[in-house]
Design a protein that fits this description.
By secondary structure, the chain is α/β, with parallel strands linked by helices. It binds zinc ion (2 copies) and fe (iii) ion.
């Protein structure tokens, strides 16, 4: 007598296409002797299995537990069906009809199996620079449409050879439906033999290398002449370059790696990991001038593995562009733009559909690492929304470090890092990104969320979009909501948002804010004492102007004395003019914490001018003497006593490292105190820390520790950056939670 048969239909949602999920189901079902089928449809994967009840239960247990590495199951919806008595298990052809939301996976670093083939002289893909499988390889960067299959990737132009097709069609093969499958007979090729590039690099030349998301510029990391030449040609004066090390041991010789950093470094996302540089590390001084940290990463494409393996030494790997332009990814464009920078260009004929920069993470001792830039490896993996969106949402993000986000139901997809929209090329890429996201995730935008800043290009873009309701979200509320939402929370919370700049509801520039609010709304509970920005944007580029403004505030002097460290570095007449501007009612007012740190960095003589936003504050953090325990006094959120004390210390010859550390500790103490007070007054036990200034791990760690000690539960950004890269997701979360579902603009 046989047990009664049971049949179950499963709808599996999440990142389950292009990741080897169907072969996994096939193997599992065959292993357990189940009948049925599996197929991809536009919403995910559909499985039907039939056997005795115990075997079906075992299948259900193992389906998630043994899922492939790249798969992410969001939910499984089971449905009991009458048994039909079929035999055998089949993979059926895809059903492309219906709602397209199956998702496009993120790009993944070359897996261990593919690496073994790459290094095996007997393998048919020995040293083939495009080896990949269902567990690794390009995804988001090659996708042109949905559902995700080869015809809708940039691999469509490469007909498979018989050997590749056999692997592609064999459910037992680890390349079953690996859409970018390729081999030396049928796949993409390099435009130059790799050994020419290897010789050029070893000879001290600069080589442009086409990778997964764009071109990199590479040179020997220990060769000062080569790195200095690269800096000159790229017109990038000081922003640190990232270094790619051949393996984790070589990376460990450059930077001190904690266990957490090692895990990040070797993860399939393969981000750039910012870690503390080892004394005497073999990197040229020009790689990361004035920085205590070094950005390191490991090879993530077969081209990198071959190149780094053959060169045998760490390489600078910086995005292939001139300063501020987007990374080059189209071949003709790259040839034109990189010709004056690189001595040699190594391209290939697999087109990149979407340019995607390397992601950047920074380890924070004792806490989750901070994502500074969420891009290749993570984009466009979905994030959950704590309050589902009643209608489809497009959130336009901010202006610098911009991303866009689309959302429907309980899911949000944040784009790769697009960059500074002030650049025309970047703005063009931004528009293309929005259209691509809407198409990939079948979002028919009904609500457009945007920043309140009238001059952001992202706001202008939002206002161009017809036929959708618009929601303006205050910048720092978006920072607060993004952090709540990524933790699945809706608030209320007391938030300390320390930022460079954001448009406030009163028309002034905010950036040192204590907000009390939730995912729907907020009020401004407290803020840093405002100061005038002498010269508007010029005050951002020239921190000495902020030093002058804050000194005038702190001392009450009409024209403060030029501080010792700036003597001879700023023009006396310009200083007097800026002092006048700092009192002029027409100068804009800001409560920005970023600008306050800029001012102290300038007082210290670290920075008179910056070449990228936030540079002065980054260098002030790097300058901190870790043994210093003092803190400058604040009067609530009024930093004038702290500025006066710093100026006094510097005049008395106290070292910059001590002044920097006391400045950090004073700010952390003041902000933590104000946040604790706001939480107590509002009767909330939850605190949120975000904003670009919290990329500073000293401040983040210090403020979080103080709030912990005050008994608050502290949330900090973990999956998205604290900087403006997280704004689009925050806007989407606010728009979703606030939407009553009414139609029409
Ligand atoms: Zn692989
Ligand atoms: Zn082939
Ligand atoms: Fe911001």
């Amino acid at each position: 007598m046989t047990a009664p048969r049971r049949r179950v239909r499963l709808r599996v949602e999440g990142t389950v296409q292009g990741v080897g999920f169907r072969p996994h189901v096939h193997r599992l079902a065959t292993d357990l002797g189940l009948a049925g089928f599996v197929l991809n449809d536009a919403a995910g994967v559909v499985v039907e299995v039939e056997s005795d009840s115990a075997a079906v239960d075992r299948f259900l247990e193992r389906l998630g537990a043994e899922a492939p590495a790249l798969a992410r199951i969001d939910r499984v919806l089971p449905q009991e069906l009458p048994a039909v008595g079929d035999r055998g298990f089949a993979i059926l052809l895809s059903d492309a009809a219906g709602d397209v939301s199956a998702g496009v996976p993120a790009d993944a670093a070359t897996c261990a199996d593919c690496l073994r083939e790459l290094r095996d002289p007997a393998d048919r893909r020995y040293r083939y620079p495009f080896v990949n499988c269902t567990a690794c390889g390009p995804r988001y960067t090659i996708v042109t449409g949905v559902p995700y299959d080869r015809a809708r990737t940039t691999m469509a132009a490469f007909p498979m050879c018989d050997a590749c097709r056999a692997e592609y069609e064999d459910p037992a093969d680890r390349r079953f439906h690996a859409e970018p499958i390729a081999c030396p007979d049928c796949g993409p090729r390099l435009s130059q033999p790799l050994d020419i590039a290897v010789d050029a690099l070893i000879g001290g030349r600069i080589v442009a290398v086409k990778g997964i998301g764009g071109y990199h510029l590479a040179c020997l990391a220990h060769d000062e002449a080569a790195v200095a030449r690269l800096r000159g040609r790229k017109r990038r004066e000081e922003k640190p370059f990232a270094v790619m090390a051949p393996d984790v041991a070589a990376a460990g010789a450059l930077v001190d790696l904690t266990g957490a950093e090692r895990v990040l470094l070797e993860g399939r996302e393969r981000p750039i990991v910012l870690a503390r540089r080892r004394p005497g590390a073999a990197v040229a001084p020009s790689v990361a001038p004035r920085s205590a940290d070094l950005g390191v990463m490991l090879p993530y494409s077969p081209i990198h593995h071959l190149l780094l393996g053959d060169v045998g030494a760490p390489l600078v790997m910086t995005s292939g562009n001139r300063s501020d332009e987007p990374i080059a990814h189209e071949d003709a464009d790259a040839a034109r733009r990189l010709a004056g920078i690189a001595d040699l260009i190594v391209g290939h004929d697999r087109p990149i559909a979407t340019r995607v920069d390397d992601s950047v993470v920074r380890a924070v001792p004792g806490r989750a690492p901070l994502v500074m830039r969420r891009s290749r490896g993570w984009a466009p993996s979905p994030l959950a929304l704590p309050v589902p969106a009643p209608r489809h949402i497009l959130a336009c993000g901010a202006e610098l470090k911009s991303t866009a986000c689309v959302a429907k139901d309980a899911r949000a997809w944040v784009s790769h890092h697009v960059g500074d929209l002030g650049d025309w090329e970047t703005l063009r890429a931004y528009r293309a990104t929005v259209a691509h996201l809407e198409r990939l995730f079948a979002v028919r935008t009904e609500i457009v969320a945007h920043d309140m800043h009238p001059d952001y290009r992202s706001t202008a873009y939002a206002l161009e979009r017809d036929g959708a309701a618009r929601v303006a979200v205050q910048h720092h509320h978006a920072h607060l909501a993004a952090c709540l939402a990524e933790h699945g929370e809706t608030g209320p919370a007391a938030a300390a948002i320390l930022d460079g700049a954001g448009y406030g509801t009163d028309g002034t520039i905010w950036g040192g804010e204590i907000l009390v609010g939730d995912i729907r709304g907020f009020r401004r509970a407290a803020h840093l004492r405002p100061v005038r920005l002498p010269g508007g944007d010029a005050a951002v580029r020239e921190p000495w102007r902020m030093a002058c403004a804050w000194l005038a505030e702190a001392t009450g002097a009409e024209t403060p004395d030029v501080p010792v460290a700036l003597d001879g570095r700023v023009d006396a007449a310009a200083w007097r003019a800026v002092a006048r501007l700092a009192r002029a009612p027409r100068s804009p007012v800001t409560s920005s914490a970023g600008r306050l740190l800029d001012a102290v960095a300038a007082l210290c003589g670290l920075r008179v001018r910056v070449t990228y936003e936030g540079q002065a504050a980054v260098e002030l953090e790097a300058a901190c003497d870790p043994s210093e325990r003092g803190a400058y006094p604040w009067d609530g959120l009024d930093p004038r006593p702290a500025v006066a004390a710093a100026a006094g210390d510097l005049a008395a010859g106290v070292p910059v490292g001590v002044v920097a550390a006391r400045t950090h500790a004073g700010l952390a103490c003041a902000v933590a105190g104000a946040c604790t007070d706001a939480a107590a007054a509002a009767g909330v036990g939850l605190a949120v820390l975000s904003g670009g200034v919290f990329q500073n791990r000293l401040l983040l760690g210090d403020v979080a520790t103080r709030l912990d000690a005050a008994g608050l539960r502290v949330l900090v950004p973990e999956r998205l950056p604290p900087n403006d890269g997280g704004i689009s997701y925050g806007q989407a979360a606010v728009a979703a939670a606030s939407d009553g579902g009414e139609t029409g603009p």
